[in-house]
User: Fold these one by one.
Assistant:
Number 1:
Amino acid sequence: MYAQSLDGFPDVRVRAVCDLNHQAAQKVADEFGLAPFTDHRTMLEQTELDAVIVATPDFAHREAAVDAAASGAHLLIEKPLATTAEDCAAISDAVQRAGVQCMVGFENRWNPAIRRIHDLSASGELGDVLTQNILLSNTYYVPTTMIPWAAKSSPAWFLMSHTVDAAVWVADKRVTSVFASGSRGRLAELGVDTWDVVHALLAFDDGTTANLTSTWVLPDSSPSVVDFQYKAVGTKSAVDVDLQDHGIRHAGEAYKWPGLLGGEIDGRLQGPPTWMVQSFVSRLNAGEPVGPGLDQGVLVTDIVLAVLESLRTGEVTPINRRPAG
Amino acid sequence: MYAQSLDGFPDVRVRAVCDLNHQAAQKVADEFGLAPFTDHRTMLEQTELDAVIVATPDFAHREAAVDAAASGAHLLIEKPLATTAEDCAAISDAVQRAGVQCMVGFENRWNPAIRRIHDLSASGELGDVLTQNILLSNTYYVPTTMIPWAAKSSPAWFLMSHTVDAAVWVADKRVTSVFASGSRGRLAELGVDTWDVVHALLAFDDGTTANLTSTWVLPDSSPSVVDFQYKAVGTKSAVDVDLQDHGIRHAGEAYKWPGLLGGEIDGRLQGPPTWMVQSFVSRLNAGEPVGPGLDQGVLVTDIVLAVLESLRTGEVTPINRRPAG
Amino acid sequence: MYAQSLDGFPDVRVRAVCDLNHQAAQKVADEFGLAPFTDHRTMLEQTELDAVIVATPDFAHREAAVDAAASGAHLLIEKPLATTAEDCAAISDAVQRAGVQCMVGFENRWNPAIRRIHDLSASGELGDVLTQNILLSNTYYVPTTMIPWAAKSSPAWFLMSHTVDAAVWVADKRVTSVFASGSRGRLAELGVDTWDVVHALLAFDDGTTANLTSTWVLPDSSPSVVDFQYKAVGTKSAVDVDLQDHGIRHAGEAYKWPGLLGGEIDGRLQGPPTWMVQSFVSRLNAGEPVGPGLDQGVLVTDIVLAVLESLRTGEVTPINRRPAG
Amino acid sequence: MYAQSLDGFPDVRVRAVCDLNHQAAQKVADEFGLAPFTDHRTMLEQTELDAVIVATPDFAHREAAVDAAASGAHLLIEKPLATTAEDCAAISDAVQRAGVQCMVGFENRWNPAIRRIHDLSASGELGDVLTQNILLSNTYYVPTTMIPWAAKSSPAWFLMSHTVDAAVWVADKRVTSVFASGSRGRLAELGVDTWDVVHALLAFDDGTTANLTSTWVLPDSSPSVVDFQYKAVGTKSAVDVDLQDHGIRHAGEAYKWPGLLGGEIDGRLQGPPTWMVQSFVSRLNAGEPVGPGLDQGVLVTDIVLAVLESLRTGEVTPINRRPAG
């Protein structure tokens, strides 16, 4: 998808693809004329790369990111940056030592609906943001079929890393503590031993709040694989967003919402992840800072770790880190 | 509204109305041919009443309820039953001593949408209810204009008493603890010193959860005075309900959702509170138990008190009471 | 359904049921304690009836209606009144000769959404109604499974009789001509030889319009058996109504909108047809005129006949009749 | 907007802008570094242009288009191509004589929702398209404030040219006749003497239909300046699209739907008209045919002319032209 997004984009050439699975690498290589690799170190040694996109599973970013940074390549790392504080520190160290740029792929920053909420806040139209209710959930399809490593992840890592980032970006305040609750058992019965449901209440430094919910147990008869609802209430106005029901409803084999974003428009891929990777390239070429950056990536991982700790302890977990710019 | 709901209903006669404000009492009395009173004890002494509806402000139910029960009248008390544990105990004692029936007016039990959610749960179609997200909020109009006693109430009392009742009714499980967060300051600036926003995470005895939010700070440009969203996810299916957008949108002076329920249909009032009071009367006449009853009323008050305690302490508050049948 | 709607309703007793199918008659008779008949003349002779409800298929109202009127019974006849001008005339004659009252069962008059549109018009809030777009369609289920006599009916008779009535009621203007277009072939392939799609443009005497569409070819994966959309634009305001999506969405075996109206609320049936038959009874008991009456029934049949004539000729068909009061 | 859309786009340079109003031309020229002109012939003589975008009012395309074609420039002409058959012929002649390419700016071809409907049809997922109901209307703001030349246009030209194009593109069938109705008077009272409401029933050569409505009399309190609803029913599936309610609702000064498409994403303009003009440029650069082309432009103008003729005569108007490829 990234290769396709950059195909024909000005002033960039995609050179290589690396996948532990040789066939997967070869397939992408053939389609876009790239060099295929199964070992990222070999790729970094044999190819001159200005930038590398790290798109391994959530928990497996560290090695590729550290090595790519050490080779002098700028980084685009998919969200979450990492799933342990140690991995975050290792990646941060490598990036700072190499003096490269690092963007964390919070692709919802390029989702027009999320941008709209952010812009309403940043422009002052919302006024002071008093609270946000953000629900981002998936049907069973995602943990049981789409991602093979779901048992090593959770709605907290896979989904809440998006909504934590959005809540902080929109509120533009410092998170001071987190309380979380949730349950597990249903997915475990289906062979995926992780959380079914996670709720998290974030407290900001001015006493205001955000309320996040993510589940992985929506029925597969839902009209969309994703349910994404966002309400932000400010002192001056409020915004209420259904990020999945874009008004297109197709009654075919089943009743589905195909969505308005993504896909090709007249042969050119469009949509949030496409616009994100194009921004990464344009800004590098222009010598501009890319973002959201490491600080935000580390902050979001810290908060998700606090969510998981609160789930375990049943108590409020403080957050000490300062927010990203 | 209750008088109108019972006007022409079989086998019932509304006899008297009591309001501290004489003019208000007289107006209703004139419209429906009732005897007007400004003191409830005088009314109870001078009128033979089989049943009394207590519709005073939330915090002022006790005296009227206790005296009416003592007079031998069955009771319909608006929700919440009371706002202190002491008032709950006093009303409970009076009801038990008098051997009368007591219904607590959780009118959403007669809201077809809430009933539908409940029936999907009770029939087994939802399967085990894994979580519920219930948001019930109002525009500024309610705390600043509609109810003069808003500073003595809060989104927790006025709104969450509805959603706590619904969450427990739908889940049919025992609440073991509550964690709440929220903020205040915006309404205080407007002269109503109470909570702007309240979030509450309920934990049930099987480890599952419910997530409740109520705010009193929605913009008055909202298409409805009430925002009421309900999601319940079960192991077998899920239901997602917008209780305010019934598909009727009127672009007049402003853009409004007039709603589908309530109002007169061919001269006869219909809607949840009407059906509730008619149920109260029909069941009393049939010698059947009325409900939801005292136990549920006391439970909901206990949980809202725990929400307020958690708001104050910042800690998880346990709930010890057993659920109502 | 009518028997259930009147069960326990004050001052009415349902006495008898007649169905050509003896088992069907017996079943209803057993459930509600009625006398069962298979011949309506026998029923009319052997039972003293103040009023009769005619609920035969659309094209088979005449004989029952004429005989019941001749017996001195008031009539509630399901819409459309009849499907030929001759049947309309015969029923009208019988009713006038007998001096009984006749209500035509346009049940949408008791649908809160349609009433809302009408009330916005009647109260002047819409201003002069400039145009209406009304779409009322069904999934294949209705013509292929639900009604065995679909090939003798059409979207024009089964659906547009509702929307023609509503358009005239809301606009409160005289229809002067109709142009219709449509297509057939798809249902014929499925063994039901009737129109798939019917569009009708009504012209009112002041030059304003209404645009009606009804189809019987919506996919069965649709979230509701009925699709009903209503837009009315007036000089002062406009109203846009989705009559099927009441905000309740259930993701079960399939994704469905269960709807907010109808069904039992605490053991008592509620909803448009229930309220309609209760109005019929209440008004007869009160000595008040029932309605909508014969004039409106005849007018709607005239307009639907003109729709079918226009479909056949491809030309504009004039309407000469005056509107009902 | 076109200048901004091409700013930074590869392999294109915007050179000049022409506007009868010198200040308007100068403003755009300053912003994007262009040469400003007030006379298009002067611009064509003094500037070497590979392509010209004609964005004059609907009725004023001919002169600029003919002259630009004669100068050897490829054309992008905003829809409708022209508002008379003579203008269509003149532009067609000029284009053919010059051997240039001509694209007609039916920008909805780049609207993801319309594309989705088209793709569902073209891929066979809809099956044979049995009917389409397309409603595209504006609030009063458009005819009374936004476009100064509204009295010379109408909902038929300004809005239905979009929906006629879409209906034909999606159905991929030949239109054989049109019947239209509508009314005027309300806008005339406001000083804009044109049609308030236009309905058009299109008949295709296989007997199937499309039903189009456009009005210019929606209240300004509507949540969007545009109301755009599209239903297409095929033999295999159906699609129901609300093109304006993208799920983003902002309760600010008024209640509005800001929409999901358009606007800048990270400094780069996105949205249908942007993607359209970028397609025009990319295809010209690649030596590929641009489209939709002259044939479609002429066809749509023919059909809108037939709509207006039917409005005048009250009769069905035949269409003789063959459809575009």
Number 2:
Amino acid sequence: MPTNISTTATWNERSAAKKKSVLNGVPAKFIHGSLEFRVDDITAVLDIPSKLLTEEELSITVLDATTVVAAIAKKNYSCVQVLDAFTHRAAIAHKLLNCCLEFRYGDARAEAERLDAHYRETGKLVGPLHGLPISVKDQCRIVGTETTCGFVDGIGRVDTEDSVLVDILKRAGAIIFVKTNLSIGCFWGETINNVIGHTSNPFNRSFSCGGSSGGEGALLGMHGSPMGVGSDLGGSIRSPSAYQGLWGLRPSTGRIPYYKMLNSMEGNEIVESVAGPMSHSPESLELFVRTVADSQPWLHDPKCHPLPWREHEFRTVTMGGRKLRIGLMSWDGYVLPQPPIRRAMNEVVEKLTAAGHEIVPWRVDQKKALSLLTRAFTCDGRGDHDRTIARSGEPDLNLFFRSSQRPDTLLENWALAMERNDFRAEVLEQWNATADENGAPIDVYLTPVNPSVCPKHGDYKRVRYLGYTGTANCLDFTACTIPVSFVDPEKDLADAEDGAHDAQGNKIPSPVSDLDRAIRNNYRPEIYGGLPLTVQIVGRRLEEEKVLGIAQTIRQLL
Amino acid sequence: MPTNISTTATWNERSAAKKKSVLNGVPAKFIHGSLEFRVDDITAVLDIPSKLLTEEELSITVLDATTVVAAIAKKNYSCVQVLDAFTHRAAIAHKLLNCCLEFRYGDARAEAERLDAHYRETGKLVGPLHGLPISVKDQCRIVGTETTCGFVDGIGRVDTEDSVLVDILKRAGAIIFVKTNLSIGCFWGETINNVIGHTSNPFNRSFSCGGSSGGEGALLGMHGSPMGVGSDLGGSIRSPSAYQGLWGLRPSTGRIPYYKMLNSMEGNEIVESVAGPMSHSPESLELFVRTVADSQPWLHDPKCHPLPWREHEFRTVTMGGRKLRIGLMSWDGYVLPQPPIRRAMNEVVEKLTAAGHEIVPWRVDQKKALSLLTRAFTCDGRGDHDRTIARSGEPDLNLFFRSSQRPDTLLENWALAMERNDFRAEVLEQWNATADENGAPIDVYLTPVNPSVCPKHGDYKRVRYLGYTGTANCLDFTACTIPVSFVDPEKDLADAEDGAHDAQGNKIPSPVSDLDRAIRNNYRPEIYGGLPLTVQIVGRRLEEEKVLGIAQTIRQLL
């Protein structure tokens, strides 16, 4: 439920009202007063729900999205049962992690009851997502809720229309049940803002959940939702997915509708933010993309391309055991991933090789990608950010932006657009050049999501490197995270102090920059134990079917 | 052949060199010294080629693109014969109309000989355009030629690479044989520049050929080329097509590659220029789009979408006689088309109705489209145009741009991008709302190309109204011109002087603005006789197959 506070109140009053209102409308039985949010507790909170949920709630909330909808279809559970189970678990997650911004339990419950009645009376499901609870990053407008995009300015303003994506998900039978926390303006890889503060990682609450879709990451990491909607401009879906061991898809622009979602720097088209799903299995991501693509979003969002789900592209890589050609970029030449990530990459490569797939060396110029991306992110000299925080008077968090920078002129910005085109074209030709004797280039490339496992709260500034994620954004490529394993302090020892050898004495590239060194030094086996290890695969533009198909193939190998 | 002049020469020297060099390399037997360019001659020059060409050349040059390639495949003609015939006719057209900028006869001849040898030796065609001569607007870069985009700055600079589209056409077997004249920077609906001056209309040389792809229009109007490549930002393919009675397609962005073509305001993505074909039949346009789409241009141009030719979308409207639902916008409420254009619209409507197709009232807010378009065209305050003319020192032609206007700031420009999105979304919903009881919305809408038949040289400024063409650009919709008839001074009488009745005494809407009045008053049956009458159909974004299919259906009715 929205806060009901006036937009003329001070920013502190608005923020206080928001913090207080998050769980409004959630049944009291789902709210456990003993739980409290902490940012300095190193123990995992993942097991707490099992002590507070009923058997039935537990058996529902361990399901992934595809099995949730299958269970409802088979009448194992009603939509109301499913909604209640996830609401209960999400309320626990929020109390522990501060990951939610607004529950809409009343409306969601009414929708669930209507869906149950429909199924009972007609014997028919309303769509492929019948009864699936979905959590959404607080950029999605939903009638009757507030949408902040991480700014205090949104508190107290009630949406009068649904985002196109929300409308499509609802029509397919989904129940949007909660909106999740995000970084201010979606512009920081840690979930922090003046709206309700920051969000912790359920694997270790002294660690960041990542960002900007960090509320989704934390909530899904706790299985408080079977499906989340995030958005990704430089890694905002993939970093939280990596830090919580989730499957997260960064589609290309024009596949999943963004129209009527709230964003910062709206209208900046040099590199665009995209909406995408985060979930517990690649099959769940497939369900989401298949449903949305087949709903013809291009009839409502002018930026969506007329591309229905292309079954053939999907089947080519999932059926019949075709040999895949996988590009491999374990290291981009600028920042070496921490030891456990190198292990995770090796595990995937070994499994792929053992299964007969081909590994092809691959490296894309991430320095160039990052330079273009940085210019795109800062081209307005913080103009949009500053006017938004000025509207509420909320304090400047002084994160990424350089406030002294002069905005680009239009002509400078057009030159940047052309440079971006040239870079994209260069990489396409580089990709074409990987063709084998049959003319088949690589299908996707495998690469780390981040060079860091996951930063402790406050460490993000020191280990921030968008090269591995941001390159896909700069190229508008399709990328999917692949959770592989967890940090094992006994296996994943720190590199030798000379920076030129790993713990086993094998040569590794010496640090090439202060950042490269800082990221390596930040890794501590003794405190990182148990944190998820995640890699990603990256396909060309608008190759969602292929990328999701290969994600499923890899999952079967792991 | 390029001019070979130094880029440090004065603009007059460069322009003089260009004018002199256009026919360089063309065999002397194809150049008729007695012909001269005129802008005040009211007689049609369409018949002149029949007095100068051989029987064989005549029988080749009356073919459209599809029959040219079929004739080569059947060995009725060699590629060299075809190239020579069109080169001869194009040279005549240029002498009469000043429509060309550079013949590349030497290279084209060598390519034709190679193609003939290949076919002779292997029995195989190299691709679906084997031997087809294609003329291109002077934005297409071709190794060894100059590309001006209508600016003196390009004279003397020799291209070192092909545009992606040129490369694709060449690989499909086409022979790019000539580059055609265009308006300065592609920004004016009349073909005029400091490079070689302006171009006349072959139906009446005292009239404009339109623009900005006016060289293509004039050349194709004379059958000096079987297929042309133009570009369209506000009507630049469709106006010359209309003024010369041609079929011209304005595809949506991302279907036909634009990468490495030269343009003005490069990087401006609010509304983008697109490349498209102009030809003598809708089947020829289909051949072009089918060939390019099936060449996978998205592997080389990062702005192209992965959309191969969709035969199903095409067949739905061409096979089986499905009833079409055609939106009708004969008048947009702002500028009433001149009487002969109203007659042409009525003729098409009658034929469609008689064939059992359904006509549905349709009106889109062209004033809003035009306002957005104008802001997009002028947002840099002429910055790009001015720096380009400054490089060569060529004089300002003082056309459309407002030189005193301050460039938009980035934030203003982003707001414009959002307004454009909202407008596009509104029209999509308006389109959805035309659905009949079976849920089928209109397939396309039928509308004039321009409210004026065609302006006399110098009149364009007085009758300039981009509403009917520019709306498709603003919406990124797919549009195809449909040549219907010719002005008949006996049928197409001027409206009554009161402006409220036509010549037959039927009520017509009174003029609503000075421009509306000026355009009506500009029509004179006695001097417009014989000029082509052309309308257009407009489909939604990326619906090229459907639009081209319906164009073929309409052609069969006419």
